[in-house]
Amino acid sequence: MTRKVADCRKYPSEVGCTLTISGEEDEVVQAAVAHAVAVHGHEDTPQLRADLREFLEPEEALAD
């Protein structure tokens, strides 16, 4: 199974977040939602979860 990565550095924010989360897709989405709500003030909605899934990249992409 391909591990996925969510990297906040690719999406500049007011807090200048540098968090990177990696793991299996469902784990990363769950952690990224919790982070988006707690740190960035987003609301946990189905749309946020869908957007975060689109934001994920294969872990190998970080090596490029």
From TrEMBL:
User: What's a Pfam family in this record?
Assistant: DUF1059
The superkingdom listed in its UniProt entry is: Bacteria
What protein name is recorded for this chain? Putative small metal-binding protein
Organism for this UniProt entry:
Saccharopolyspora gloriosae
